Amino acid sequence: MTTELPRIIQGGMGVAVSSWRLAQAVSRRGQLGVVSGTGIDTVVVRQLQLGDPGGHLRAAFDAFPVREIAQGIWDRYFVPGGKPADAPFKSKPIPTARMSRSLLDLIVVSNFAEVHLAKAGHSGPVGINLLEKIQLPNLASLFGAMLAGVGVVLMGAGIPRTIPAVLDHFAAGEAAELKLDVTGALPGEEFVTRFDPGRYLAPGVTTLHRPQFLAIVSSATLAMTLARKSIGRVDGFVVEGATAGGHNAPPRGGITLDAAGEPIYGPRDAPNLEQIRALGLPFWLAGSLGDPGKLQEAIALGARGIQVGTAFAFCEESGMESGLKQSVCNAIREGSAQVFTDPRASPTGFPFKVLRHPGTASEPEVCAAREPMCDLGYLRQAYREEDGTVGFRCPGEPLEDYLRKGGDAADAVGRKCVCNGLLATIGLPQVRHSGAVEPSLVTAGNDLEGIRTLLKADGAGYSADDVLDHLLGSGNERPVAAG
To answer: Is the pTM of this model over 0.90?
Structure first.
């Protein structure tokens, strides 16, 4: 049975900006709180090495259905009292096409923990956001979230046509496969990742709740493709415009830059809502919709509601490091903050919105001082080696390594380490053996003016409740019960 979802979806902002605390605060109000599954295994590993501040992970690990699996991760990474501030974080394995059991355990438990904490203490709906482009961890991430009872899966940055079938298989306690996109694969050659959930199910448990699936799309064409050709049931769409934060779909017809160096989006890039309405599935609009009245405008256009990310990204409950958050909010209050849609920053090749802020990786001198490396590997590209095996490369790694793996030097120009930058943004920067600390990289949508209206005149911040009251107007909308 499909449950009608709320009017407001809190955006699934990458690498724990949309933390369990934020999702919990939104869900308590009956709206859809969303955690990010992207990189959550690294987030959990680093929080354990900080001594598990607040003891929240301990509670989540204790709730995991197979205690010895969770305890093994705890024993491997937990540092009582936390590591020294100037010591590097202990690394974890990088995802590969054939992952070790210990890494799969970590991904499953980490996603379970984040969803479990977001669901604690209320009955509101909780969702998880994942990127289709980050394929390697997705099966284990989805299962870990389902094991914790996640209500909704949201996925974009690609064509997630087979994800609904994965949810069906996991709900039935069955193994599932995902095709791996491999550059240079020969005609008829197929590479897959596979995940069998059996060892993570508690004795006697054979089925799980199947969450609803919302695909994040930027065009009616993609929505129609997913509605008609997906393997399994698509339950709705988030229709995202080019002003939304994070990764954006490239303009149709190729990228042309304006005088400032940003991609030019035109009328062809506006989604055809009439065609999307005709599909008969609920949809939510996203992108610069953080002002009062935008919700009703979206409903008038046939949408179920709206997804809002940027306003929540800087609220008190978001996972952004508090000092950085305050500094950015001050810049927004003063009117000096700017968002740049960078066509080169992300190793994915998708345009990526970067908030320009002193001391962060938005500044050329900060990037120039950073030693290139790819030690987290979430945005690596899979390619076919000459012997038929799968290799991985990243345009953000040292250039000589990238070229040795068959990469094009032109693809490496202007790339930033999004993975390390986003972890630094939530206060978990890696400390290099040289003593250098990874710089933050802040992403936000274009709607900074909406944040300025939420900021207090005395310099104080604002809460997730403030955002919801702002969006709902009277704030009297009846909460939608979780299904």
So the answer is: yes
